[in-house]
Amino acid sequence: MGKTKEQKQEMLADIKQNLSESQLALVVDYHGLSVAEITDLRRRLLPTGSCCSVAKNSLMGIAVKEDANWQPMEQLLAGSNAFLFLKDDIGGAIKAYQEFQKTTKKTEFKGGVMEGRLLTQDQVKAIADLPSKEELLAKVAGALNSIATKLAVGLNAVPTQLATGINEVPASVNRAIKAISEKEQQGDGA
Name one GO cellular component term (predicted). Predict the structure, then answer.
């Protein structure tokens, strides 16, 4: 028994919502996976803020046709597809899928779509190797902290050097007066 029109409209709305929240979508052939294995994949993706959806290619085709960012996915819509919607931690989600693939050896990566481009498996692996958002933020924070520390040390040195200079002024004035006095005495004695 097929889905009702209302159920299909609801599924289409869910797909569109997932696409609108995603930075990258992967298409994998899930042929041969059990319900427990698909549940395992979904569970692995959950901590990364990503999700896995099994939908009819026709529904996905309708969803991507309206959005230029996702239209390249139309080339991948054949066979038994599961769609991975990667939202927050892209690298972590790709790694989670790769670990799942190694464990089950039942899925086949078909391709990915990001910012209107069709991606190969190698391109997706390259994205997974990029530092995570948290790692980049930590590096930026470290660099900013380093700059602030150097600035504080430099600013702290200014008053110290100024105080040393001010302390040196009376001694320099005394030496200058003494030198002038000695010169005048030599001039009077000659």
Answer: large ribosomal subunit
Q: b/e map of 137-175 (b: 16 or more CB within 10 Å)?
A: eeeeeeeeeeeeeeeeeeeeeeeeeeeeeeeeeeeeeee
**How many helices (H) and strands (E) would you count in the chain?**
6, 5
Judge whether 8 and 60 are in contact, CB under 8 Å: no
User: Residue 53: CB partners within 8 Å, gap ≥ 6?
Assistant: 14, 15, 18, 82, 83, 85
Mean pLDDT over the full length of the chain = 85
Query: Could you count the other beta carbons within 10 Å of the beta carbon of residue 182?
Result: 10
Q: Where are the domains of the chain?
A: 5-130, 132-189
Q: What digits encode the pLDDT tens for the residues 115-142? A: 999 988 888 888 877 766 677 777 788 7
Angstrom distances, CA of residue 31 to CA of 52, 62, 102: 14, 22, 15
Residue 132 has a pLDDT of 65
Whether 38 shows a pLDDT value over 70: the answer reads yes
